[in-house]
Each structure stands twice: as structure tokens, then as C-alpha cells.
Model the fold of this input.
Amino acid sequence: MDNKRTILNVAVSREELRFLEKRAKDEGKTKSELAREALRIYRLNKELDEIQKYGQKIARKLGIETLEDVERIAG
Done:
């Protein structure tokens, strides 16, 4: 993983900035740390969404619609 950093300028509302500043202060982090954490969480959520969609596609192909179907197949 490349540890080099690049500066990213992001425009946010005053309300979002106040929230970010308060959270950073409360958690003892910098605004940049919180922004990086938010981006990591966003990426993870997107990856999980893709996995869930794939699982749903496979379930449809296998005719799995309920928990009982899963238990029946898992046997």
C-alpha cells in the first residue's frame, strides 16, 4: 500500500464543519483523521453492498427466499 499522501480540498457546509470539529475534539483526532476514517467506512460499506448484491443474486438462482430455505439447504 502506498503511504504517500495527497492533499484533498473538500468544501463542506458550516454545520458539517462544526460537527467535524466537535467530533475531532471529542475523539482526540484531527479533522483529517476523521475524514480518512469516514472514507474508509464508506469504501467498506460499498464493498459490503456489492457482496450482498452478489449473495442475493446467487440466492435467487438457488431459489432461496427464506431462512427456512437456508436451513434446509445447509441441512
Observations:
- Helices lie at 14-27, 31-62, 67-74.
